[in-house]
């Protein structure tokens, strides 16, 4: 491994996400500083220069996602301000659309190339919690994206008027935890567990009956919220849940299996694979649960055991939130690989076999998706914050609180093994880096 | 090259070994993979994602983003090595392709094996050249310092040539004794004894008085270097011991006359000659044993013991060879090669592993020395181990060896759809190549030589090749009409070559849209039967009307007009998208007519768009506004009154539905053409249409 570049100071606060465009020539970054920056790589020397920089949200930006280039230069951003925004890059020559608010200029004092601007095309405000992740669907399903918020709702938005990008329809909105999961007989105990472990009370504590009114109020008060004022009283007690929970999504990149998305949500430590279909309600075709142990789960969520305090029940010992899920491009494999990273410090790789539901009748064991853990790594020894695959799905990388990025690869015998790591520790050979340290402080 | 390594990024953020440093500050690392090459962007983020984090605008902390690649980009001589060996690889793939047209066992035929052997020798020769080139002093290499040392290429050279000796014998000679060939290989790559030693000894008056004399002579004999052996045995004729003089007189012709396989046409004759020769060696031994103990010393040494070792080697005594090799500091390779020359002259390739396992027990290979481990695995006939070690030495080597191993049935071929061992190593090499995105052509060449998994990986790479259209336009003015140039052309050709139509079309359509070359994009979508894609292109064309006005729109739309015919010829027309295409084309035609002042035709066209139900509801209002100048056309009445009534009906529908709250559906496009106006302004505009219609009816009746 070799370091190939550095952006010395990308943002004014911690960076929350970085996302390459389809070709890897541009990098969009977002930060707690509420801004989005788009960086461009000079192909001649590999250095990065900022191309655009704008204040995007009224709270930290959580994630970014690029749409497929066939839809133009489009970014979706999710934020703790409970919105998802859609941005499009326009060139002044192409789109003399004076009515739109231009974001590239004005807001930034830095000098920057004047020939591109990112226009806010849509603001989607349906979430009743902080929006934690956003990801565009594979392009063959059209221009649509999924977003997950701390209200445990998975929302799918579809662009209705494509070139203008202004009209987005909320085509699905589903409570991930109470989503009916498929119950194939073979995995009976597992799905049973899930059914019991998803008390609707969770939702009730998070969003009281008057939730929509509250959120409206909250949205108006968001500025204060961000600047550090105490949160609205109705949300007290959810702070822990927010801190301990994990909300993450990853689309299946394949076209063949239809629209599938893996979703991790809350603190229960499981990932659901949800199938979206125009003809019927979304269903969870599979639940990835590393600790199916029915006894424990049933006991902790049994009605007599603190059913009133759902938070407490779901936070029972074995459950650690999944913070990141990544669906590998299948690239010709007969099975799928889904990686998860969680607060339990584990990086897991699931080998997922699709059900052969194509020639089967509805009544039969249709959609019998199966999964097995093919790798379970604990080298991080501390919470894992991110897992991500390379574009061919052959190398997995994970980031942990041990301050290391770790890489994982399969051997020729299809066994997953550590394949190196990266860190930001002072190198043991002192000479050269020390002089750089001085530079930094200067 | 890869292995499990750790890289510390600079500037560092925590002390060495401080695993918890970041976490204590509430920070951790996160990452993103680049699609351009196997590299990562790494940034510092918060351990607890929450909005409670306070903004700290005054903070002087840098928020760095690090970039790191999995491999060093091939440069300098390495790049040349990669591009040149690709040619041999491609020739090999052509052979494999040809084999598919033939009987299943065609690949095992002498003819095919001969070609494979020839290509493998091409690799060897090429590596050799590269090694020689790399061994030259820096001054003679204008391209600057090497990326890989000459030592590295030497390792590749020894390994690949050994592979050829052991696994790609000349067709017909697979079952022939291998001893001489192995010894030749050893003498080529691991030269012993050194020429300097020989020069030194030959310069001495009494070389046998030098301590290196007997080891030199023993080794020369062991290595079958008969010229050197004969020269120094000749010198021994000056040795004071008459016994030794006599013995060397017998030994000399024996060394000179040791039967060599290459001098025989039939192995039987060779075996017969070898046996007779061995008998003569035995006679020498008897002669030696007659030398009395007391006469076996000269002033410096026990010459008899020394000579006995040499005769022992010629006799093919395994224990002598093993012991002597140990004393000489040579390794298991030398024992194995000598085995085939002296111990078992008829040693065959398939018997070699047995010998090797015996030898390795006494003289094991150096586990820290990859090259040695590879040699051992090759000798021992363990292709899997060969690949395991070579992939650590250089993915180039494992890929190209595996590529040849598969047709030789040394490793199993593709099983079902999962990854074969050959493909695994080829893809590993391809991954390495991808570290330089500019090498994408070579990267996909290797990937497309694989099964389904490799092919689909190549698709991903190909789809992401930056097309650099903008730069091209800057340099060329514009993309040449109909033709495509530069990177896009290359991508296209690659797609055609490997029959990746879907990729080609996706890339092309993507490009055309970027370039607003809709006239190419639509046919591409149609040929790929990508109806939603075509719909998107048409949408973009319609968008041109909204953003740039009717003239630009008409220009773009006329470019997609030929596709309408193409679509008609298709049995399964894709309703809604075809409909939209037709609308765009017809509507553009209408504008063209209006511009050419063909008002009558324009009016008829407008009516036809309505009566054929081509226009989406959102466009009705725009069309109706377009009708105003036609309605007000002075010289003649362009619409029949029934047609005008039809327009009025549409107009009323808009008013009624808008009042019912469906304004978005009917007025959105008109509102956008009016640049940000609201529903009210749009309705005002439509009232003008109503007025024009009313006046028109008045004119109708007044006539």
Automatic annotation (TrEMBL), chain A:
Domain of life of the source: Eukaryota
GO molecular function: structural molecule activity
Coiled-coil region(s): none
Keyword terms, alphabetized: mRNA transport, Nuclear pore complex, Nucleus, Protein transport, Repeat, Translocation, Transport, WD repeat
Main localization, broad class: nucleus
WD repeats: 8-49, 54-88, 322-360, 377-418
Keyword Mitochondrion included in the entry's annotation: no
Location relative to the cell: Nucleus, Nuclear pore complex
Pfam families: WD40
Biased composition (Low complexity): 98-116
GO cellular component, one term: nuclear pore outer ring
Region of interest called Disordered, as start-end residue ranges on this chain: 93-117, 292-312
GO biological process: cellular response to amino acid starvation; mRNA transport; positive regulation of TORC1 signaling; protein transport
PROSITE patterns xref list: WD_REPEATS_2, WD_REPEATS_REGION
Transmembrane spans: none
Family according to the record: Belongs to the WD repeat SEC13 family.
PANTHER family referenced in this protein's UniProt entry, alphabetically: NUCLEAR PORE COMPLEX PROTEIN SEC13 / SEH1 FAMILY MEMBER, NUCLEOPORIN SEH1
Name used for this protein in its record: WD40 repeat-like protein
Organism, scientific name: Tricholomella constricta
TrEMBL record, chain B:
One of the record's GO molecular function terms: structural constituent of nuclear pore
Record's GO cellular component terms: nuclear membrane; nuclear pore outer ring
Parts forming coiled coils: none
Pfam family, one: Nucleopor_Nup85
Keywords associated with the record: Membrane, mRNA transport, Nuclear pore complex, Nucleus, Protein transport, Translocation, Transport
Main subcellular location of this protein, as a coarse class: nucleus
GO biological process: mRNA export from nucleus; positive regulation of DNA-templated transcription; protein import into nucleus
InterPro entries: Nucleoporin_Nup85
Compartments reported by the entry: Nucleus, Nuclear pore complex
Function: Functions as a component of the nuclear pore complex (NPC).
UniProt family annotation: Belongs to the nucleoporin Nup85 family.
Protein name: Nuclear pore complex protein Nup85
The organism of origin for this protein: Tricholomella constricta
């Amino acid at each position: 491994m070799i370091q190939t570049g550095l952006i010395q100071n990308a943002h004014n606060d911690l960076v929350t996400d970085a996302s390459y465009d389809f070709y890897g020539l541009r990098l969009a970054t977002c930060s707690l500083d509420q801004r989005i920056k788009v960086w461009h790589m000079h192909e001649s020397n590999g250095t990065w220069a900022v191309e655009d920089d704008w204040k995007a949200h009224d709270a930290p930006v959580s994630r970014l996602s690029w749409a497929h280039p066939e839809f133009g230069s489009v970014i979706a951003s999710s934020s703790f301000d409970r919105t998802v925004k859609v941005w499009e890059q326009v060139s002044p020559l192409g789109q003399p659309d004076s009515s739109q608010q231009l974001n590239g200029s004005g807001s930034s004092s830095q000098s920057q190339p004047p020939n591109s601007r990112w226009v806010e095309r849509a603001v989607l405000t349906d979430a009743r919690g902080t929006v934690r992740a956003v990801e565009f669907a594979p392009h063959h399903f059209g221009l649509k994206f999924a977003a997950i918020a701390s209200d445990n709702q998975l929302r799918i938005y579809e662009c209705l008027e494509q070139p203008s990008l202004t009209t987005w329809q909320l085509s699905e909105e589903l409570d991930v935890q109470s989503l009916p999961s498929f119950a194939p007989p073979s995995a009976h105990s597992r799905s049973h567990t899930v059914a019991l472990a998803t008390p609707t009370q969770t939702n009730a504590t998070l969003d009281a009956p008057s939730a929509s009114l509250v959120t409206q109020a909250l949205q108006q008060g968001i500025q204060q919220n961000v600047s550090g004022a105490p949160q609205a009283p109705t949300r007290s007690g959810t702070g822990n849940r927010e801190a301990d929970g994990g909300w993450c999504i990853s689309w299946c990149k394949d076209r063949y299996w239809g629209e599938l998305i893996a979703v991790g949500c809350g603190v229960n430590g499981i990932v659901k694979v949800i199938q979206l279909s125009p003809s019927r309600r979304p269903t969870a075709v599979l639940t990835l649960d590393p600790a199916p142990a029915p006894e424990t789960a049933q006991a902790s969520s049994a009605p007599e055991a603190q059913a009133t305090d759902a938070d407490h029940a779901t936070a029972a010992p074995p459950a650690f939130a999944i913070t990141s899920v990544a669906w590998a491009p299948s690239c010709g494999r007969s099975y799928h690989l889904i990686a998860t990273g969680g607060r339990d410090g584990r990086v897991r790789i699931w080998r997922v076999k699709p059900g052969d539901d194509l020639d089967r009748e509805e009544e039969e064991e249709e959609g019998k998706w199966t999964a097995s853990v093919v790798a379970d790594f604990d080298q991080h020894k501390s919470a894992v914050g991110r897992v991500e695959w390379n574009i061919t799905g052959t190398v997995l990388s994970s980031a942990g609180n041990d301050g290391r990025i770790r890489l994982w690869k399969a051997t020729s015998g299809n066994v997953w093994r550590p394949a190196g790591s990266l860190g930001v520790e002072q190198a043991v050979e002192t000479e050269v880096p020390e002089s750089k340290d001085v530079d930094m402080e200067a | 090259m890869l292995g499990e390594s750790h890289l510390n990024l600079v500037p560092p953020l925590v002390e060495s070994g401080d695993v918890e440093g970041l976490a204590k500050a509430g920070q951790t690392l996160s990452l993103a993979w680049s699609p351009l090459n196997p590299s990562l962007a790494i940034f510092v983020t918060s351990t607890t994602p929450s909005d409670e984090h306070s903004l700290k605008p005054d903070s002087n902390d840098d928020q760095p983003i690090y970039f790191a690649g999995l491999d060093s980009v091939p440069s300098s001589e390495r790049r040349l090595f990669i591009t040149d060996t690709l040619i041999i690889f491609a020739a090999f793939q052509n052979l494999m392709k040809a084999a598919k047209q033939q009987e299943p066992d065609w690949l095992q035929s002498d003819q095919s094996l001969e070609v494979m052997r020839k290509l493998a020798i091409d690799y060897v020769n090429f590596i050799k050249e590269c090694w020689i080139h790399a061994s030259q002093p820096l001054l003679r290499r204008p391209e600057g310092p090497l990326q890989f040392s000459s030592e590295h290429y030497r390792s590749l050279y020894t390994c690949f040539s050994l592979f050829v000796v052991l696994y790609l014998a000349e067709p017909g000679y697979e079952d022939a004794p291998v001893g001489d060939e192995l010894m030749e290989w050893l003498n080529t790559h691991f030269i012993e004894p050194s020429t300097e030693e020989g020069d030194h000894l030959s310069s001495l008056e009494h070389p046998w008085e030098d301590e290196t004399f007997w080891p030199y002579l023993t080794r020369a004999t062991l290595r079958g270097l008969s010229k050197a052996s004969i020269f120094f045995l000749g010198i021994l004729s000056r040795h004071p011991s008459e016994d030794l003089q006599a013995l060397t007189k017998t030994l000399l012709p024996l060394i000179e006359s040791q039967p060599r396989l290459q001098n025989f046409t039939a192995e039987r004759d060779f075996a017969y000659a070898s046996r007779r020769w061995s008998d003569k060696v035995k006679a020498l031994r008897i002669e030696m044993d007659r030398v009395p103990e007391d006469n076996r010393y000269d002033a410096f040494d026990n010459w008899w013991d020394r000579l006995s070792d040499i005769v022992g080697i010629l006799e093919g005594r395994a224990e002598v060879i093993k012991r002597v090799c140990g004393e000489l500091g040579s390794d298991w390779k030398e024992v194995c090669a000598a085995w085939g020359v002296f111990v078992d002259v008829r040693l065959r390739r398939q018997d070699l592993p047995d010998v090797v396992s015996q030898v390795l027990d006494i003289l094991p290979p150096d586990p820290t020395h990859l090259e040695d481990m590879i040699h051992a695995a090759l000798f021992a006939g363990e292709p899997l181990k060969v690949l395991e070690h070579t992939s650590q030495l250089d993915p180039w080597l494992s890929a190209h060896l595996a590529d040849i191993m598969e047709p030789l049935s040394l490793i199993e071929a593709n099983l079902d759809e999962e990854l074969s061992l050959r493909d695994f190593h080829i893809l590993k090499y391809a991954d390495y190549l991808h570290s330089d995105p500019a090498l994408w052509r070579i990267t996909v060449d290797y990937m497309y030589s694989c099964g389904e998994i490799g092919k689909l990986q190549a698709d991903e790479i190909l789809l992401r090749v930056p097309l650099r259209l903008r730069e091209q336009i800057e340099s060329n003015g514009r993309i040449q009409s109909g033709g495509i140039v530069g990177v896009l052309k290359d991508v296209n050709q690659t797609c055609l070559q490997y029959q990746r139509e879907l990729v080609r079309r996706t890339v092309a359509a993507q490009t055309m849209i970027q370039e607003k070359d809709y006239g190419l994009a639509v046919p591409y979508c149609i040929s790929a039967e990508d109806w939603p894609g075509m719909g998107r292109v048409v949408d973009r064309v319609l968008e041109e009307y909204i953003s740039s006005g009717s003239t630009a729109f008409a220009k773009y739309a006329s470019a997609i007009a030929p596709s309408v015919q193409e679509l008609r010829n298709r049995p399964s027309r894709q309703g809604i998208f075809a409909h939209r295409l037709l609308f765009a084309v017809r509507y553009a035609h209408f504008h063209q007519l209006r511009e050419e002042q063909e008002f009558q035709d324009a009016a008829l066209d407008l009516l036809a768009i309505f009566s054929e139900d081509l226009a989406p509801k959102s466009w009705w209002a725009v069309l109706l506004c377009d009708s105003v100048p036609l309605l007000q056309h002075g010289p003649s009445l362009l619409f029949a009154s029934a047609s005008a009534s039809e327009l009025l009906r549409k107009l009323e529908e808009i008013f009624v539905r808008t009042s019912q709250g469906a304004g978005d559906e009917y007025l959105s496009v008109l509102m956008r053409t009016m640049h940000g106006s609201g529903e009210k302004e749009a309705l005002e505009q439509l009232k003008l249409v109503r007025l024009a219609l009313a006046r028109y009816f008045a004119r109708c009746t007044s006539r």
